[in-house]
């Protein structure tokens, strides 16, 4: 289970299947590792996060190409604003500049822990 599998009201991040959007599991895993751990994503996800449509389309695998709308919509609506929007924002998130990522990740991990303790899993 990852953060994109959890219901909005219990964790604060809508699931990958939110409102009929289907994000491929490998992409959901990549987004989770990027957002929580600062792992540098591959070319496709980096292009989506940076808002580089041409590169995203050019580097997408078959599954991601089918679900590009869902991936970009999810990022735009639910990823922290400081984690996307340009290549510079992606680098800053990975480097955890101003501790933006680590503070956000800690808050989400606490929410996840409380959710598990309350038996929502």
Main traits of this protein?
121 residues; mainly alpha; 0% strand; globular
Structure write-up:
This protein has 121 residues and is mainly α. The chain has one domain. The chain contains 8 helices and no strands. Helix 3 runs antiparallel to helix 4 and helix 3 packs across helix 7. The longest helix has 18 residues.
Sequence-ordered SSE layout with sheet pairings:
Elements: H1 8-11, H2 25-37, H3 43-50, H4 53-59, H5 62-66, H6 68-78, H7 87-95, H8 100-117
Helix pairs in contact: 3-4, 3-7
Short description:
The chain has 8 helices and no strands. The chain is an all-alpha fold and 121 residues long. The chain has one domain (3-117).
Taking the sheet with the most strands, its summary is: none
- Rg, nearest Å: 14 Å
> Roughly what percent helix?
55-70%
**Which segments are poorly predicted (pLDDT under 50) over 5 or more consecutive residues?**
6-12
Structural class: mainly alpha
Strand content: under 5%
Please give the domain count: 1
Number of helices: 8
The count of strands amounts to 0
Mean pLDDT: 85
Give the ordered list of helices and strands: HHHHHHHH
What distance separates the N and C termini?
Answer: 9 Å
Shape: globular
